[in-house]
Each structure stands twice: as structure tokens, then as C-alpha cells.
């Protein structure tokens, strides 16, 4: 067997997903490597076009995700469980919360924890502000970018993956969320296209994050004096070593080792956070956190829809900050979403949304307050020490530590945290790429892991070579645009799935079968397996309903009541039993022939006999008050009489209560009665 045949025999990759993705990635990497200047020019032109025409869409989409999730949370749909109704959460609540904290951590917080608040403070969106107002605005903008909206983007994907994966038993891929809209077509071209966009989005999101990590690791080495070079060769070395470690970790199968490494890293990051709180302006941080949270939540609705449509001078700020962030979050959504989905089986939708939206968001806000507000305070106390290096954003974290005690130790710990995050993010990212490209298959041969690692490294270095982080950000922005549209459609798919789920779960026995006993069960089975047509319904109305209603008319009249039976012939015949009242509305119990479309699954199933048409016909009741009726085709004459009496007893009980007279009074004849009284 040749090498190519062996690869084909062992691969889990699906060609319709993998091949277009790899071709696209190779073309981008080749173009950026061979023609770096032209690539940078082209990417900048596309970026400006996206900014000019689609910034509003990113803002609107992010707000739709947030509002959609909050609506699900407060509605009755929030009680639906991610899995079977009897499934218990796989992880205890404290463990689940801890893992959500871990999901909130990453290279981004290390890179932007100091950089973003400082940059907002130095270049405020609004002019003419005092120092305190600039500081307050800087923190609010940072909270907006790292808060609830970011996690709403993640949560939409995570919820769809968890719901359709655990409730419908579909693969953990984005296409599964479109099952209510596309049904079996998710296995065709449309499903492949969705996964290709999701895969490309994840690839460029990962390369952007790894690019931030590589730049900051290089800055850390320079700060510590371990390297004294800004050459591109240093980046090649950092990316190559980190990716080699990630690939080794991924193919070695030492998942427990990676888990321990991640836990150690989370502990180091926590210690770093505590150190900054203690070494920085502690009282200011706690006071500022409290006030900034209030400012953030009170401004959340306004922030959610702000596009600066009437302030064109601020649209550049919006594009270079918020839009880039929203595209970055969207590109990371399949990656983070899959992690969150896998740990959330057994949770209710309400518990899931509240946990995913607020737990990581609050942690991010705490982190940004501790690092960002301390950095602004230090810059104020040192006459602009951090402002002086603000153009070198990857070095701001280490410049910040230089102003604190034990700066070398803090910088070393930070460098360790960034490096480990770099490796673990790449490791986890390779797993997710394999999963998407394999339509949910989690076990992949080693050569696939190596291939993905090489592709990530080559693509990241190519984009860094052509234009640095700007090129990485631009590619993320471009590929996130169609993925945002896919996520909007995903919300519709999720909504439809949840509505069907709710209706399905609340479906009870039909009124006609509620009183069944074991007697004459063979006749009842015959009616169930043989769908009814118009002739059957006409026969039911003639043979069962008419004798029942005639008998009722005679009995009611023997008690001094006026009753009548009406038979209305036609294409869809109906029959009515009516009791005439003077001051009350007439009591009406009617049965009419109604058609209902059958599911395609039933019509096309060869193992379901006697179904040849896409419609069936049923005798459905209707009442004087417009209440929803029900199917009575399985009732015998005596059962139908008993059902009419139940409805009449209900009618009389309501009529005897003054609180219901708005419904039971004969409003049609009120005018006539009043006139005769005059």
C-alpha cells in the first residue's frame, strides 16, 4: 500500500470541508509570502471596504446575540436541558464555574490587559474630558469589548453545539445547528459550505491570537535582556518552537499533562492578578471596579447599538477597535464554543446562559480593572512612563511591571503564562480544527495533527511577514463577515429547534384517546395505522356524531331546554350541537373536517404502511368561545356524548360565576334587549 493510500485509509478529514479550506489557506500564505507589499495593500483595501459598508452589521449582530440569549434565559425555553431530561450535569457547579473562568483566560488578556485601557486613556473618544473622566471612559470601553457582548458571541455557538449535540445527538459541528432549517440537507453542499467558513474563521482567529502571543513573547525576551533583536527570524524561531511543542503535546496523547499544565498556568495567572492588586493602588482598584461596573451596566444598551452614524469623525475609532474585536470573537467562537459545549451537558439553557455570559465577563472585567486602572494610575504618577512606549503595544505589559516591585519576577511569570497559553491554545486549536474538518470526529491520526500545526505556523508567519498584526487582524475581519451572517441564521435554527422541542415535550394524549381502556384495542389500532381521508370523516360525522347529537337533542328537550343539531354539507363537512340560551351565549359544540400536512419523514418511510398522501383529514371540535379544538375520531358514540356533556358542564359552571360574564353574556343581543327595555 502506497503512502497516499495509507493516508486515505486512516484520515478522518472530509474532503468537501478540508480541501477548499486548505486551498484557500495556501493561496493566502503564498500570496503574503511572495508578494508582501501587494498583499498588505490588497488587505488594507478590503479592510477599508468592510469598515465602510459593514460596520453596522457587526454591531447589530453582536447586539442581536445578546438580546436573543437574554430572551431565551427569561422565557420558558430556559428550562430545557442540554441533553435528555434525566441527564445530570457532568461536572459539579463549582468545577463548571472554574472551567468557565479558565475559558475566560488567554493570550488576549495578557496582551490587552494593560494596552487597551492605556490606549483609550491616551487617545480618548470624547474630547475635553478631565483626567478622571478619561480614566472612567477608558475602563468602560475596555469592559464593553471584553464583557458580555464578547461572551454572547461565544455563547450562541456554544449553545447551538451543546443543544443539538446532546439533545438531538448530532455531531458537534456548526452545521448541526442548521438541522431545523435544512433537515437532511446539512449533509450536502450547504452543510459543507457552513463548516468551511467556520473552519477558515477558526484558523484565522487562532493565527491572530498566536500572532499576538509571538509578538509579546519576543517583547518579553527583549525586556529581560535574553534577546536583543527585532528581526523577523526571532518570530520564526518563537512560532516554530511553540508550534512544535503544541504538536508534540497533541500527538502524544498526554491529555492529563496538558490539563495539569493548564491548571498550573491558571494558578500563575491568578497569582499575577493578586500581585497587581496588592502592588498597585489597591483601594482605587476596588472603588473603581464598583463604580465602573455601575457605569458599564447602566450604559450597556446605548453601547450595544452605537455605530456613530451621526458622528463620522468617530467611525474610524469604531472600526479599529469594536469591529475588529467583534470579528475576532466571531472567529474564536467555534473554538471557545466547542470547549464550553463539551463541559455543559446536563445544564439547563437558563443556567448555561447566565453562567457563560456573566462568569467569564466578570472575571475579564476584574482582570482589566486590576491591570488597566493600575497602569493608568502609574502613568499619571510617573509623568507618562507608559505613554512613552504606547506605540509598542506588545511591550506595554512588561513596561508596566518595570514600575512595580519585583519587576523581574513578575515579568518572568508573565512570560511563562504567555508561553504556556501559546502552547495550550495551539494544542486545543488543532483539536478543534480536526473536529470541524472531520464533521465531529474527535479521534484523528497523528499526521493530521502535524499538518494542522504546520498550516497554522506557515499562515501566521506569512501574514506577520506581509504586514504584522494588521494583516492577521484584516484576514480575521474578512472571514468573520460571512461567519457572522451564518451565526444570525444559526439563531433562527436554534429558535426553531427549541420551539419544536417545547411543543413536542408538552404534547399530551389526544382527547379522543384519553379515556381508552384495554377493550376493543384491535379496532383502535386499525384506526391509528390507517390515515383517514374525507370519506372517513364524512362517515364518522354521519354514523357517530349525528346519532350522538340527535340523542342529545332529545334528552335536553326532555329537560325543558331548547337544543338543535345542524349538519353543514360541503367539501369539508361539519356538524354542530347547539343549546339555545336567552341571556347567555348559545352553547355550541361543533365538529368539522380539517386537513393536516404529514411529515415528509413519515410519507417517505417505507416501514410506515398505508400512507400514500401528504395530507390526512381529522374531525376537529370547535366551540362558541373560539377555544382550540381537538381530534375526536377515535371516540365512540357514547364517548362523544360524554365529551359534549363535559363541555356543557364547564360552560354552565362558568356562566354561574359573575367574573366570567364578559365571555358568557349574549353580547350580540345586548342592543336589542336594551332597546326593548326602553
From TrEMBL:
Membrane-spanning parts: 12-36, 56-84, 96-114, 143-166, 186-212, 232-254, 266-289, 323-340, 352-369, 406-437, 449-468, 474-495
Bilayer disposition of the protein: Multi-pass membrane protein
Domain of life of the source: Bacteria
Keywords linked to the UniProt accession: Cell membrane, Membrane, Transmembrane, Transmembrane helix, Transport
Subcellular location: Cell membrane
InterPro entries, A to Z: BCCT_CS, BCCT_transptr
UniProt similarity note: Belongs to the BCCT transporter (TC 2.A.15) family.
NCBIfam families assigned to the protein according to its UniProt record, in alphabetical order: bcct (TIGR00842)
Name under which the protein is recorded: BCCT family transporter
Species classification: Bacteria, Pseudomonadati, Pseudomonadota, Gammaproteobacteria, Pasteurellales
Amino acid at each position: 500500500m502506497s503512502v497516499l493510500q495509507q493516508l486515505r485509509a486512516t484520515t478522518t478529514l472530509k474532503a468537501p470541508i478540508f480541501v477548499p479550506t486548505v486551498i484557500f489557506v495556501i493561496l493566502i500564505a503564498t500570496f503574503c509570502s511572495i508578494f508582501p507589499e501587494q498583499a498588505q495593500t490588497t488587505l488594507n483595501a478590503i479592510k477599508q471596504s468592510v469598515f465602510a459598508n459593514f460596520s453596522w452589521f457587526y454591531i447589530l449582530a453582536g447586539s442581536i446575540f445578546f438580546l436573543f440569549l437574554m430572551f431565551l434565559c427569561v422565557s420558558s425555553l430556559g428550562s430545557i436541558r442540554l441533553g435528555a431530561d434525566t441527564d445530570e450535569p457532568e461536572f459539579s457547579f463549582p468545577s463548571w464555574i472554574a472551567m468557565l473562568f479558565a475559558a475566560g483566560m488567554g493570550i488576549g488578556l495578557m496582551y490587552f490587559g494593560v494596552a487597551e485601557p492605556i490606549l483609550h486613556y491616551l487617545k480618548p473618544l470624547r474630547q475635553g474630558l478631565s483626567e478622571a473622566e478619561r480614566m472612567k471612559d477608558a475602563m468602560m470601553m475596555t469592559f464593553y469589548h471584553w464583557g458580555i457582548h464578547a461572551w454572547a458571541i461565544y455563547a450562541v455557538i456554544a449553545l447551538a453545539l451543546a443543544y443539538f449535540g446532546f439533545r438531538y445527538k448530532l455531531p458537534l459541528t456548526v452545521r448541526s445547528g442548521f438541522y431545523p432549517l435544512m433537515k437532511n440537507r446539512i449533509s450536502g453542499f450547504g452543510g459543507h459550505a457552513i463548516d468551511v467558513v467556520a473552519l477558515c474563521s477558526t484558523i484565522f482567529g487562532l493565527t491572530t491570537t498566536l500572532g499576538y502571543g509571538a509578538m509579546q513573547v519576543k517583547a518579553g525576551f527583549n525586556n529581560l535582556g535574553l534577546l536583543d533583536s527585532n528581526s523577523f527570524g526571532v518570530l520564526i524561531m518563537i512560532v516554530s518552537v511553540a508550534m512544535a511543542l503544541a504538536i508534540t503535546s497533541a500527538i502524544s496523547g498526554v491529555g492529563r499533562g496538558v490539563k495539569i499544565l493548564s491548571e498550573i498556568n491558571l494558578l500563575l495567572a491568578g497569582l499575577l492578578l493578586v500581585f497587581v492588586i496588592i502592588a498597585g493602588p489597591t483601594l482605587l482598584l476596588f472603588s473603581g471596579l464598583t463604580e465602573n461596573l455601575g457605569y458599564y451596566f447602566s450604559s450597556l444598551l446605548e453601547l450595544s447599538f452605537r455605530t456613530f452614524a451621526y458622528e463620522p469623525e468617530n467611525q474610524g475609532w469604531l472600526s479599529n477597535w469594536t469591529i475588529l474585536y467583534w470579528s475576532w470573537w466571531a472567529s474564536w467562537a467555534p473554538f471557545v464554543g466547542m470547549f464550553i459545549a463539551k463541559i455543559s451537558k446536563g445544564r439547563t439553557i437558563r443556567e448555561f446562559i447566565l453562567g457563560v455570559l456573566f462568569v467569564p465577563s466578570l472575571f475579564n472585567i476584574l482582570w482589566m480593572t486590576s491591570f488597566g486602572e493600575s497602569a493608568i494610575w502609574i502613568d499619571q504618577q510617573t509623568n507618562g512612563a507608559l505613554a512613552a512606549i504606547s506605540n509598542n503595544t506588545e511591550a506595554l505589559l512588561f513596561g508596566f511591571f518595570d514600575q512595580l516591585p519585583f519587576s523581574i519576577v513578575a515579568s518572568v511569570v508573565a512570560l511563562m503564562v504567555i508561553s504556556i497559553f501559546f502552547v495550550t491554545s495551539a494544542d486545543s486549536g488543532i483539536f478543534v480544527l480536526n473536529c470541524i474538518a472531520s464533521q465531529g470526529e474527535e479521534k484523528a491520526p497523528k499526521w493530521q495533527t502535524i499538518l494542522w500545526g504546520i498550516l497554522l505556523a506557515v499562515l501566521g508567519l506569512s501574514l506577520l511577514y506581509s504586514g504584522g498584526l494588521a494583516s492577521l487582524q484584516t484576514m480575521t475581519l474578512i472571514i468573520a463577515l460571512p461567519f457572522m451572517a451564518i451565526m444570525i441564521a444559526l439563531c433562527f435554527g436554534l429558535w426553531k429547534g427549541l420551539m419544536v422541542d417545547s411543543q413536542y415535550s408538552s404534547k399530551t394524549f389526544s382527547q379522543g384517546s384519553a379515556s381508552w381502556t384495554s377493550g376493543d384495542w384491535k379496532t383502535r389500532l386499525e384506526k391509528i395505522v390507517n390515515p383517514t381521508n374525507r370519506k372517513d370523516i364524512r362517515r364518522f360525522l354521519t354514523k357517530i356524531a349525528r346519532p350522538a347529537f340527535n340523542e342529545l337533542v332529545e334528552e335536553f328537550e326532555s329537560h325543558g331546554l331548547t337544543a338543535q343539531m345542524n349538519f353543514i354539507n360541503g367539501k369539508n363537512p361539519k356538524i354542530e350541537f347547539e343549546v339555545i340560551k336567552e341571556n347567555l351565549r348559545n352553547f355550541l359544540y361543533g365538529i368539522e373536517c380539517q386537513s393536516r400536512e404529514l411529515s415528509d419523514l413519515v410519507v417517505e418511510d417505507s416501514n410506515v404502511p398505508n400512507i400514500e398522501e401528504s395530507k390526512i383529514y381529522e374531525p376537529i371540535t370547535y366551540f362558541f368561545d373560539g377555544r382550540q379544538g381537538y381530534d375526536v375520531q377515535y371516540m365512540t358514540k357514547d364517548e362523544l356524548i360524554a365529551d359534549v356533556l363535559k363541555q356543557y358542564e364547564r360552560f354552565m359552571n362558568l356562566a354561574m360565576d359573575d367574573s366570567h360574564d364578559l365571555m358568557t353574556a349574549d353580547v350580540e343581543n345586548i342592543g336589542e334587549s336594551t332597546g326593548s327595555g326602553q
